[in-house]
Every structure is written in C-alpha cells, then in structure tokens.
C-alpha cells in the first residue's frame, strides 16, 4: 500500500468528485480511479459508492477516512520531527525546478540575489514539470520554480498554495545559420518542402505552450517533426548541429544568439511566433508546520520585492504608458 493512495482517498472524500480530485492531485482521471481501486483491493472491500452523485463513501470508507487522516498527520509530524533534527537540512532551502529552468534561470537568479538578499544554501532537484509539481504537493521540497503561460491552467490550487512572480521568459524559434549568416530554416516553410522540426515530447509543458502558439497564428506552418525530447537543452544541441529549428527559451540560447551560432527562424512579419511566459515560485500555504526559517526569509524578501515592483509599475503606467516591466528576467 502506498501513502499516495491514502492522500488520493482523502481528497476524494473531501471533494466527492473523481474529476476534481484528479485535477488537484495532478493525475489523469483514469489514473486516479486506478489508484482508488488499488486501495480498495488492498482493503478488501468497496470504499466508494459509485452509484451516487456526488460520490459518497461506503461505511467502510468512512471508517478508513478517519484512520487515513490520523495516519497522514502522524507521517507529517514524523517527517517534521526528523527534519528538525537535521541541522544541515534545516539550513538548506530545497527547490524543485524543471530541467530547463534548473540549467538556465536558477544559477543567474541565485547570483542576482547574492547582492540584494544575500547568499543562501540550496538543494536543487531537477525534474520534469509534473514531477516537480508533485514534489511540492507531497511536501518533499520547500519551494517550486516553474513556468506559467496564460494558455495553460495554473499547476496548483491557490487555496493550498501561494506564488510570487520572479520574472519573464521569451520562447522563440531558432535555427543554425546558413553560410550567409541567415537562418538555415525559415518559417513558415512550404507545403511541398516542410521544415525539419525539433519538438518537445508529448506532455512537456513548453511543448504545450508551443503547440498552442502554432495553432493561434494566421499563417499555416509547414513542419516535419524529426526529433523530440523533454529537455530544451537537448533541442538546442540538435539545433546547433543543423538538424532543424526549435522553439527555445531565450535564457537557454542567449550566448549562442550573441555569438551567431543560432539565429531566429522567424521572419520580421511573423513576430507573433514567440511566447512570453512568467517564471513563478510556489510554496504551500503555512499550516500546522511552519516553513524553514531560511525559506521563510527568502519568501518574505521576494514577496516584498514583488509588491514594490507592482506599486512602481502602477505609478509608471499612470505617467509613462510604455515603461518597461521591472520584473523582466535579466538574461
């Protein structure tokens, strides 16, 4: 029996909806249903009355719900106690960060904080977006850093988690230059000669943003997907070798663009073919167990900085409509 089954079951008991609980637990509804069925197999009886709507627990389910709450609370308390005895763990802020941001954003962001907030000890766990989110949901890290785009739903329930905006990131199409210094592959391509396209694997967050972007442009794109991977660094390596064009975060390619090893694959008339994403930090709203003092101090500093920038933007927008957003990430 896995503890996440109990967490799923508690969520279902509270929402009384398979679809809503699957959303909150960041899994598909079929996967969520299978986990509930696994718990019922372990218990040896039905725990959920599936003939009613909203969903209700059976008498056995009601009994297990009370026990599940006690078990999960005991586990949380035990973990908090163990962490309290680890001085090194208490000093380190644990970050869950998707691979792309771990390579590109985090190092320069931490350096910029050294002159304003001060240096801090950090333990960074690089994961795919789903696993990074689940790391925070399950309480296995202090802070999550992730992208957000208006076309995608927020990854976390605002009732349980809070966030602060760290900056912005541009995602744009790039390619290796040709001998004349122009793009080796230039959008939109032709129907009889589609461009080799280096894409993100299905389910990758940046891939979902790019696919939405491609659907929204008025001009038809003629692309032939020849390679895919979860990681932007993998796409960049293939683009540098001339295998095709790829949509990459600016912070991942700023050095290559300046050196001329990569160039834009986007004609000036198609500037809509780039997306602006927010870089956000999330944490669980403080509850029975207070956050680490180091993580709390960093959160307080970032929140205060965001509020000050928001106030400055409001003043600038009144007097200078074209003022640049000071939250723009420096790359």
Task: Tell me briefly what this model is.
This protein has eleven helices and eleven strands.
Detail the topology: elements first, then pairings.
Blueprint: H1 3-15, H2 18-24, H3 29-43, E1 48-49, E2 56-57, H4 59-84, H5 87-91, E3 93-98, H6 99-114, E4 122-127, H7 129-137, E5 143-148, E6 161-175, E7 195-200, H8 205-216, E8 223-229, H9 232-240, E9 245-249, H10 250-259, E10 263-264, E11 275-284, H11 293-319
Parallel strand pairs: 3-4, 3-5, 7-8, 7-9
Antiparallel strand pairs: 1-2, 5-11, 6-9, 6-10, 6-11
Helix pairs in contact: 1-2, 1-3, 1-4, 2-3
**Helix/strand structural class:** alpha/beta
What shape does the CA trace take?
globular
Report the radius of gyration as a whole number of Å: 23 Å
Please bin the fraction of helical residues.
40-55%
User: How many helical elements?
Assistant: 11
- Distance, first to last CA: 46 Å
Please report the total strand number as a whole number.
Answer: 11
Major β-sheet annotation = 9 strands, mixed
Overall mean confidence score, pLDDT = 84
Order of helices and strands: HHHEEHHEHEHEEEHEHEHEEH
The percentage of residues in β strands lies in 15-25%
Give the oligomeric state of the chains in this entry, treating copies of one chain as homo and distinct chains as hetero: single chain
Low-confidence stretches: 314-331
């Amino acid at each position: 029996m896995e503890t996440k089954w109990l967490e799923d079951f508690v969520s279902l008991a509270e929402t009384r909806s398979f679809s809503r609980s699957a959303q909150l637990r960041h899994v598909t509804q079929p996967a969520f249903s299978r986990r509930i069925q696994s718990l019922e197999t372990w218990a040896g009886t039905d725990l959920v009355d599936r003939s009613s709507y909203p969903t209700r627990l059976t008498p056995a389910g009601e009994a297990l719900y009370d026990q599940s709450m006690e078990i999960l609370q005991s586990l949380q308390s035990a973990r908090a106690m163990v962490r309290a005895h680890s001085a090194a763990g208490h000093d380190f802020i644990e970050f869950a960060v998707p691979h792309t941001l771990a390579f590109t954003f985090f190092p320069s962001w931490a350096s910029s904080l050294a002159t304003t907030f001060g240096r801090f000890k950090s333990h960074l766990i690089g994961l795919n977006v789903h696993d990074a989110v689940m790391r925070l949901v399950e309480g296995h890290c202090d802070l999550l850093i992730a992208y957000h785009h208006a076309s995608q739903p927020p990854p976390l329930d605002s009732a349980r988690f809070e966030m602060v905006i760290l900056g912005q990131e541009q995602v744009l199409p790039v390619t290796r230059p040709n001998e004349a210094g122009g793009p080796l592959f230039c959008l939109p391509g032709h129907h009889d000669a589609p461009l080799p396209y280096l894409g993100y694997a299905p389910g990758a967050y940046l891939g979902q943003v790019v696919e939405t972007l491609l659907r929204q442009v008025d001009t038809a794109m003629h692309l032939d997907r020849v390679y895919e991977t979860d990681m932007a660094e993998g796409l960049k390596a293939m683009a540098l070798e001339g295998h095709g064009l790829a949509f990459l975060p600016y912070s991942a390619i700023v050095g290559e663009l300046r050196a001329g090893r990569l160039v834009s694959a986007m004609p000036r008339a198609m500037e809509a073919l780039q997306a602006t994403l927010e870089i956000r930090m999330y944490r669980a709203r403080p509850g029975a167990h207070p956050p680490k003092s180091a993580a709390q101090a960093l959160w307080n500093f970032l929140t205060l900085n965001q509020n000050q920038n928001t106030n400055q933007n409001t003043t600038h927008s009144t007097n200078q409509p074209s003022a640049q957003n000071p939250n723009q990430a420096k790359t």
